[in-house]
Design a protein that fits this description.
single chain, 466 residues, two-stranded antiparallel sheet, 67% helix, globular
């Protein structure tokens, strides 16, 4: 939709109008740090106020810019139509499916109780992170994060040095782990909807295995050093307070499978597998909410109480991302218009797409960023050695570029708290357990120091191009 707006416009938005989106990011980064705003920012209603104010400014811009007027049409009429189109795209087409999927997985995973307080050794923590990295591709990064974050926090409850463990959990379970199937991370799902074969993403196993293994190795070294620095009393308590693992609420696995099946099959833009029937709009979201409702009805309340389940974390994501999805429409439109110019200027190598997709995915939502570079790659006048056919559409995409775009969107969503939806939820739950999580910029120090050098190595090994 926004691509059509850009095509009909006499000019694309000026860079000045990116400022509401930039202000949204700065607010998220700065308000928790300032003494005057820290307490005010803790309330989700105030986050929603900021989102609505900045989002409204973006909508005022779209309502008054007057692009693409038809003969006899006044600015106000065109503005109302433009605002309606922007809201339909940002809220109905993107935000609603995004938040419904996260909410459904959050509710269902919140009913699965993994009990236990294992010894918080580097080996134990590394195994939990490795398990989560694998689960993320099959039940989604949100599902895996919600199932495992609490057992990881309980296991490390006696330890003093645990911030780095939660940060690596965000790296691996909430982001990097989810690249083997389309249900693992939203960008890959959008690729599937555009014709990429459901199991094509399994070809990313080399990149996935390398980045997961390297990140786990870095974590193990760090945690070994941190464990040696633990006070003697903390280590003694960790050895004494041990509880074997057990799992309750496994009925929720049925509801979880239902959500995955709905996401994979109830796409209103294509027929239901094996039939000519095309699902109506929002049936997918209705089924997902029904699965979440089934989880609430069939899971004993005591299990959610034991999980300390509440809606604060998902509420924070909902309040912040409604503003992000609206204000980011301007930078997304600018990127759409810039695509042909990028190709003409030599923007054709896999490493170009890996870094461009990845860095923008760190600050824009990684799903629409993926789409921008996906469409750019399709438009390139190249004759690649290997192509991926996009369903029955007759379109193809260079497989090397598709690999780079997919990895960039998934991997570099870990660079900031806003790169992927589960990041904020994990942060909020960790803070409920008393972990003092780093600020927006503090988190970026971790990702900048640990992940960016790793991504440079990934570039040299996998995406050097010709």
């Amino acid at each position: 939709m926004l691509a059509l707006l850009a095509a009909e416009a006499v000019e694309v938005p000026g860079y000045l109008w990116v400022w509401p989106f930039a202000a949204m990011l700065l607010t998220i980064a700065v308000f928790p740090l300032l003494e005057r705003t820290r307490h005010w920012w803790e309330h989700n209603r105030n986050k929603l106020v900021v989102s609505c104010v900045l989002g409204s400014i973006t909508l005022i811009y779209y309502g008054t810019r007057g692009y693409g007027l038809k003969a006899g049409e006044d600015v106000s009429a065109a503005g109302i139509a433009t605002v309606g189109a922007v809201l339909h795209h940002a809220i109905l087409a993107e935000y609603v499916p995004f938040i419904v999927l996260l909410l459904s997985l959050y509710i269902i995973a919140g009913g699965i109780v993994v009990r236990g307080d294992l010894r918080a050794t580097p080996r134990t923590n590394t195994i939990i992170l490795a398990l989560g990295s694998l689960m993320a591709s099959f039940i989604g990064t949100t599902g895996a994060a919600m199932v495992l974050i609490r057992v990881l926090l309980r296991t490390n409850l006696e330890r003093r040095h645990r911030v780095h463990t939660v940060v690596f959990f965000i790296f691996l379970v909430a982001n990097i782990g989810g690249c083997l199937l389309p249900i693992g991370d939203p960008p890959l799902f959008l690729g599937y909807l555009r014709g990429v074969h459901f199991f094509w993403t399994l070809r990313l196993v080399r990149e996935w295995a390398f980045v997961v293994a390297a990140t786990l190795a870095i974590y193990y070294v760090w945690d070994t050093w941190a464990y040696q620095r633990e006070p003697a009393e903390a280590r003694r308590l960790d050895q004494v307070q041990v509880e074997p693992l057990s799992v309750s609420g496994l009925l929720n696995l049925i509801w979880l499978v239902g959500v995955v099946a709905a996401v994979a099959t109830l796409d209103p833009s294509r027929p239901f597998p094996g039939t000519q029937w095309r699902p109506p709009p929002y049936l997918r979201e209705i089924v997902q909410l029904a699965m979440a409702g089934g989880s609430l009805l069939t899971t004993p309340r005591r299990l959610r109480q034991e999980n300390q389940f509440n809606y604060a974390a998902i509420g924070e994501v909902a309040c912040l991302f409604v503003g992000i999805f609206i204000t980011m429409q301007v930078p997304i439109e600018i990127l759409h218009a810039a695509g042909p110019r990028m190709a003409a200027s030599g923007f054709v190598q896999p490493w170009h797409f890996f870094w461009a997709t990845g860095l923008l995915s760190s600050f824009l939502d990684n799903a629409p960023t993926y789409v921008v570079y996906f469409e750019t790659a399709i438009s390139l006048p190249l004759a690649p050695a290997s192509v991926v056919a996009l369903g029955n559409s007759g379109r193809v995409i260079d497989e090397a570029l598709l690999t780079a775009i997919s990895c960039g969107a998934v991997f570099m969503g870990a660079n900031t708290y806003i790169g992927n939806g589960p990041n904020f939820m994990v942060k909020a739950i960790a803070e409920q357990y008393g972990v003092r999580m780093p600020s927006f910029f503090g988190y970026m120090l971790y990702s900048g120091a640990l992940l960016l050098p790793l991504f440079v190595l990934v570039t040299l090994i996998f995406f050097r191009g010709s």
